[in-house]
Design goal:
Length: about 130
């Protein structure tokens, strides 16, 4: 029995969410869970990178472009891609220029507006899963 691209193997699809604002993280995690995926939530880039370094299963990273601190969003995306070349990355941004800057570092990442309507982030995660090699 083989798994389809949208099923992340024995663990199901695992989505790692990294964002500064608690309300945004909870909203995104709710969308992800309603879509039938599992969500791991972090409030900073360092914690998200730790999840990846520890080798926990992650199929898609959804990161808030406004992440700041020791590991900003662009750095998180680059480090995540270095650790896991096949990892799909979705960047959530409320500023076009911030999203464009992050895209320079990880050109195949998908961008979505942070204030997008309900369920649009889950839809973008599905698109990311469908586009993986």
């Amino acid at each position: 029995m083989s798994s389809s691209p949208a099923t992340g193997g024995a663990y199901g699809v695992q989505v790692l969410i990294a964002g500064r604002q608690k309300h945004w993280r909870e909203d995104v995690a709710g969308q992800i869970r309603r879509a039938g995926f599992s969500a791991t939530v972090c409030d900073c880039g360092v914690d998200a990178l730790t999840v990846l370094v520890l080798g926990l299963p992650v199929d898609v990273l959804v990161a808030d472009v406004s992440l700041e601190g020791a590991l900003c969003c662009s750095q998180l995306a680059v480090e995540a891609r270095a650790l896991r070349p096949g990892l799909r990355i979705v960047l959530a941004s409320d500023m076009a220029e911030a999203g464009a800057e992050a895209m320079e570092h990880v050109p195949d990442a998908l961008i979505i507006s942070q204030d997008a309507r309900a369920e649009s982030i889950a839809r973008t995660v599905r698109e990311a899963l469908a586009s993986r090699n």
